[in-house]
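Sample entry as discussed:
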Amino acid sequence: MTAAQARLTFRLHLIVFVSLIPHIHMTMENETLLELKHSLRNGEKLTTWDPSTAPCTGNEPNWEGILCMNDTVFGIRLEGKELGGNIDTRIIMNLPSLITISFQNNSLEGEFPMFKRLRRLRSIFLTANKFSREIPMDAFYGMRRLKKLYLANNDFKGQIPASLTSLPKLRDLMLENNRFEGVIPTFVRDNLTFVNFANNRLRGPIPKRLQNFPKSKFSGNGELCGPPFGQCKVEIPTSTIVMIALVIVAALAAITLAFVILQLFRPSSIPYKKGASSDHDQMEQGRGKAATIDAETNLSLKLAFMKDEDETFDLADLLKASAVVLGGGVFGSSYKTTLTRHKILVVKRYSQMNNVTTDEFYKHMKKLGKLEHENLVPLIAFYYRKEEKLFIADYVKNISLAVHLHGSRSEVKQRLDWPTRLKIVKGVARGLLHLYNELPSLITPHGHLKSSNVLLNQEFDSLLTDYGLVPITNQEHARDVMIAFKSPEFRNHGRITKKTDVWSLGVLILEIMTGRFPANTFHYSRGGDLELTNFLDSITKEDVTIDMFDKEIDGFEKHNEGEMLKLLYIGLSCCEPDVEKRWDIKEVVDRIEEVREKSTNDNDSD
């Protein structure tokens, strides 16, 4: 072929391709809108949405509720159509020219749609629906073109999102007749021309930039003050009250921790041995008699450290340190204890742990103390007393996985995107495999694997805690509270197996991927087993689709759907009720390691 012929061929191909662009565009809009229709309850009432016709012809719509310009959909206006469900913004992301959306006077509900995915939007009209949850603080982050936001006559609660305050073009803000609470945030620009905050639960001073609006726009709140209402009373600043409360809580926590330690440390708990002149002499007499050593006598005066280099503090230091109560678990309370600015510890108080002899307890703790892995919280020291024990570990600065998945937006600063969730699962799996390898004599090396026992550091690495406790826990108490004893094999056959921790890992993976809350892992009751069974049944009985994924997964991208589904299948396989069919830990970890975070270029990265 000559150069002239090649150029001619290229031009012909280009002409054909360009001529097909309007058809491709029309097909994409057609399919996207039909997908939106099927995602809404009562969507079948949109009878003019005919797949055989295009939504637009020039500037004229062929489908009801569609706004058109130059054969392109620029708006959706479906008002008063009795539509229910929620708006899936992942679908309408495929309408690149969409700038306005209105679903007023319908029955939409559930989570607030993630409109921040649609940064071209200029108008959002959702007045008179059935939304009743909190709107995330970052819900409008990056929506620099948004001019009009109408959310009136719903049942929204929580605070007004702070991400609204810096939007450069926001003009209309209608929030009346909801349950918004707290203070009205300060808007950094003067571009608001229409606002309405009436009939909510707002309090505090009205920001200066809003004080020129009529009183009616703020009525029905009760605790608002400042123009156009009366002057605000002089009160002690909230920050001062909070600081005082924190000081009181910290002091009470320190007193509580000191009391606990003193109770364990009191002289009456140390058996008296006739003829023993000192504790040192008792320890000398006990040498070479590991089977009969009186460990409670010899070690009750000091902490038992796992490594010599950790012996930089003692009980007296813990007594003097400031402490904050972190919470109470199924074994006892936990305290954040600050020795120095660079040395912060967690002290956990354990009861229900007199299942074994003193010597057996120390031997087991020695095994746990030898564990070293990047995905385990290492045990630094412990304090032994027959009735109760103290376990001491380094404080992990971030919060638990449970709080990230189910906590309020005030507790969580960052949502968990897909790469982070995959990283967390891989870290949990690697830590659990290490427990299996290093504690081969234990039937369940962890025994209590759940989202509140997975801590996350600042890099969102997984750190397992409360592992290896089954052998030293009273069995009656363990059966009541520990996750291993909620497994199908224990419910059906009264036993746990080497694959029980695999089942717990499966429950955790499903929780991470779906965002659903397996209630009994936090609240134990007689109905706990049933609650967890219902949690699993609600997943396994559904068709496995992308709709099962947690809507809070930030940065969701379609090119990762296959990998996300793959991890979901792994979680379901781990929850196989038949132990014989359930994978062992090595196979599970191998399959998890194969799951990847795919880039848009299909390059795998871990």
Residues 236-270+292-395 form a domain with the Phosphorylase Kinase; domain 1 fold (CATH 3.30.200.20).
